[in-house]
Write a structure and sequence with these properties.
- There is one protein chain.
- The protein has 159 residues and is mostly helical.
- It has a domain at 41-134.
- It has six helices and two strands; from the N terminus they run H-H-H-E-E-H-H-H.
- It has a two-stranded antiparallel ribbon.
- Strand 1 and strand 2 (103-105) form a beta hairpin.
- The two termini are 44 Å apart.
Length: 159
């Protein structure tokens, strides 16, 4: 039997959303090593193109760690498969003739739908959909001490 309820949010996400409670936080949270992971060997050309576009964006958003390498690779390969299938459908059409002479959807159309579904699901994990981004609020600017700013040229307080 699988886990019940919605998936748990990381503590960093709870801090950003303003719902973090120290009494409910794990005593020793795991820390993943941040940085740009290397693309796995054997990725397709389209998958590598997706990888090269996404890694800098995800690092800038502080979402990507070394532990996310395989999930990002899966995202990129599903994206590449979707575009490969789309090229087939554009070339051969959305329909094909069945064995009895009737029109039926091209098999690549169904496969495209499956790949796009995987792309959306994996994209949610990285905050790549508008809905997943809308749940994250930006941190407010820290308060400044006008006296310290005037006297020492310092900005935000360390509180």
């Amino acid at each position: 039997m699988g886990r019940r309820g919605p998936p748990k949010k990381p503590a960093a996400l709870k801090v950003v959303q303003g719902t973090f409670r120290p009494d409910r936080a794990p005593k020793s949270p795991s820390r993943a090593q941040s940085g740009a992971p290397r693309a796995p060997k054997g990725m397709s050309q389209l998958g590598l193109g997706c990888w090269r576009r996404m890694v800098p964006r995800l690092i800038e958003a502080q979402v990507l760690t070394e532990l996310d390498r395989e999930m990002l690779a899966a995202f990129c390969e599903c994206w590449a498969a979707y575009w490969d299938l789309k090229a087939i459908v554009q070339k051969e059409g959305y329909t094909t003739m069945g064995s009895r002479g009737n029109l039926r959807p091209h098999p690549a159309v169904g496969a495209m739908k499956v790949q796009l579904d995987y792309v959306v699901r994996l994209g949610r994990e990285f905050g790549l959909t508008p809905a997943s981004r809308s749940r994250i609020e930006a941190l407010p600017e820290p308060p400044t001490d006008p006296t310290a700013e005037f006297l020492f040229g310092e900005g935000p307080l360390d509180t």
